[in-house]
Write a structure and sequence with these properties.
With 353 residues, the chain is of the alpha+beta class. It is built from eleven helices and ten strands. The strands form two sheets. Strands 1, 4, 5, 6, 7, 8, 9 and 10 form an eight-stranded mixed beta sheet that branches.
């Protein structure tokens, strides 16, 4: 029996050394170490041995089993190594080829325009003020001198909120006024003046605003920035100088500005502000309807009633304010003719900017 065990080990090693894949290795394991394998068949004959022979044969059988298991591991490792070498020989890598570059993202053009505006006005002595996007109509309309029947208060223009779905207003909040999605960032001017209590006030208020609009030049959500300066001796000359400095810093030193009389409830007098078209240089083109000018924002001196409403003496202090759509400025800067392109997240569009 001892000779059978030694012969069995020799045969197993020879088969494992010639095995070319995992299937042959596994077949050899089952042949020699399986429940019905050769080793089990030999061991079943131990019952015929004497009591003195059994321990010796059992010890040799265990060593044969261990040797076969060790040979199995070596065979498996050899098969894996040969397979790896075969793969490497078939799939050679040219390390001299350039790698595939990773595309790096960048700031959205509207965000870049907002950052540029904040930096420009910071150099002019203004700081950024912020306010809630869910606003009270007393701040959005009433304190800005909008009469009760003004068209801007209509459902066609303003997004009103269902009061039943809103949490209880905080202590000291205006009541019983309606809450809305703010239609401009001018309410932040009111909050800034109430917070400051007395001038000087020099703030800009960039942020999101909401209106019932949707076409190539309007979206339900867009971005505005308001500028407010209240102090003793402020005049239209200061407004014109600030506007001119802002436009030249944003679009370039060749851009000209002009003011035309207009009307806004919260400014008196009021003006529409035009700039020479950045693309045609004021020479005239289809975009500017061959006038050379584009209307970009509204401006004016702060209405004395607005100052009175926030506790500022209009006999002592004056101020100017103006507001502009940040998305429109970005459109003009990049020559985009459809505002909706900024909100569709089309990578092909964003990569051009």
């Amino acid at each position: 029996m001892i000779e059978e065990l030694k012969s069995l080990l020799t045969d197993a090693k020879a088969e494992l050394e010639s095995a070319s894949d995992d299937a042959q290795v596994e077949a050899t394991r089952i042949k020699y170490l399986g429940k019905k394998g050769s080793l089990s068949a030999v061991l079943r004959g131990m019952g015929k041995l004497s009591a003195e022979e059994r321990p010796k044969v059992g010890e040799i059988a265990n060593s044969v089993k261990a040797a076969i298991e060790e040979a199995l591991e070596r065979a498996r490792s050899a098969v894996r190594d040969r397979a790896l070498q075969a793969d490497l020989s078939r799939e050679k890598i040219d390390v001299t080829l350039p790698g595939r570059p990773q595309k790096v993202g960048h700031r959205h053009p509207v965000s870049l325009a907002m950052d540029d505006l904040s930096e420009i006005f910071a150099r002019l002595g203004f700081h950024v003020a912020d306010g809630p996007e869910i606003e009270w109509d007393v701040y959005n309309f009433e304190k800005l001198c909008f009469p009760p029947d003004h068209p801007a208060r209509d459902m066609q223009d303003t997004l009103f909120l269902d009061q039943a779905t809103l949490p209880e207003p905080p202590a000291g909040a205006p009541s019983p006024h309606q809450r809305i999605l703010r239609t401009h960032t001018s309410p932040v001017q009111i909050r800034a003046m109430l917070e400051a209590k007395q001038p000087p006030v020099r703030v800009i208020t960039p942020g999101k605003v909401y209106r019932c609009d949707s076409d190539i030049t309007h979206t339900p959500m867009f971005h505005q920035v308001e500028c407010l300066h209240v102090e003793e001796g402020v005049s239209m000359a200061h407004l014109r100088g600030t506007l001119d400095a802002f436009v030249k810093a944003f679009f370039g030193p060749h851009i000209q500005t002009r003011l035309r009389p207009s009307y806004f409830p919260f400014t008196e007098p009021s003006a529409e502000v035009d700039i020479s078209h950045p693309l045609c240089g004021g020479k005239g083109c289809r975009v500017c309807k061959f006038t050379g000018w584009l209307e970009v924002l509204g401006a004016g001196m702060v209405n004395p009633d607005e100052l009175t409403g926030v506790g500022i003496d209009p006999e002592k202090y004056t101020g100017y304010a103006f507001g502009v759509g940040i998305d429109r400025l970005a459109m003009l800067r990049h020559g985009v003719d459809d505002l909706r392109a900024f909100f569709e997240n089309d990578v092909r569009f964003l990569q051009q900017l």
